[in-house]
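User: Can you help me understand a structure? I only have the sequence.
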Amino acid sequence: MKLFVNDLTVMDFSYLCPKRGMVGESWIVDILLNGGLNEESMVQDFGKVKKELKHVIDEYVDHKLVVPVENVSTTITHDEPQERVQVDFSYQHESTGNAQSMHLYCPPEAYAFVYAEEVNMTSIKSYLKEVIKIHLPENVHSVELYLREEVISTDFYHYTHGLKKHDGNCQRIAHGHRSKVLIFEDGNQSETWQNYWSKRWADIYIGTQEDIVSSNELSFKHDNISDELFYCFKYEASQGVFEMAIAKQACEIIDTDSTVECLAQFMFDELKTMTDIKLEVRAFEGVGKGAIVADD
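Assistant: Let's start by predicting it. Here is the structure, written out as tokens:
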């Protein structure tokens, strides 16, 4: 007997890519359980599937930075006395051909370590299947995961950020989303402006100005980090101290927090400097949620 649950959850996370750098992503999760009937004549109660397995997926991937452990460009250093992990990653950007690197020093909860050369749907499915097996009841013999992107017919972008004021997992400095954007001029959808933001924020890290520090203020050291080429970020949240150095050309720096409300306002304010037509901006944070800013 097989039990399926579609749209079990959406995983919002970022991952390290040898061609694109740090990529924000949002994947929808469907799940299929194969097993015999239990004493309730069920493979498993839908409520338990939605609650317990969603919790496992959220705990191990959602709002984390997924790191390809077996990639030759990945270096992982565990600092047990400080209860933090340093991740150094280098890559050659596929569009520009430039060699770049990024460096993070964060609590272990900020990462998901996948033993593969690259992070993709196949490697994350394998990672999650091994984790989920531990949490299945005896009557369930196997589990299948199906990961998919939201079907978006308009422009979208991949972004990564961290929200230090958030009480939950959004405080992690490198988690992200795959998000569409809808912009209207005088009530008409503007493909021009939507395309503008999809290009401007392609694989972007959106950082807050007040979180920027100089390289000598970082708690970790690396020979490649310079204030000329890198933005260095550092902040303390309830889960610990988060630090990161990332190439300036991979960033957009804003004066506010990077909540979706602030991002919608940022896009709106930027566009108002370029056009005097009545505007409405609908910025999404992953799948099916977001914020709207419009002229009165």
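Now, to help you interpret it: The longest helix spans residues 46-60. The longest strand covers residues 2-17. Let me know which part you'd like to focus on.
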